[in-house]
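Final report, Chapter 2: Outcomes

The project's central promise was a pipeline that accepts a single protein chain and returns its three-dimensional structure in a standardized token representation, suitable for archiving and comparison. That pipeline is now operational. To close this chapter, we reproduce one record exactly as it appears in the project archive, with the input sequence first and the structure output second.
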Amino acid sequence: MMGLIIALGREDVVLPGDLALRKGIQAAYQLDHLPAQQEVLAIADKWRPYRSLATSYLFSAVFEPAEAPSPPRSRRSEA
């Protein structure tokens, strides 16, 4: 899908079976369930003609890197 969006410059692409998109919609719309393909299509219809842009935003929200843990503090006293 991202190949269609990026390489081909398609502005109105949505694949309702894509798990990352479904998880992104679930988080963005605060759903208590993973949306079915028909529900994804119904929600994404409101994004026309820029469904690719909305999909990209949702992908980045799902795949946002986790915050790196802080390094452990040294027990030695620093003088």
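Archive annotation: The radius of gyration is 18 Å.
This record, like all others produced under the grant, will remain available to the consortium after the project formally closes.
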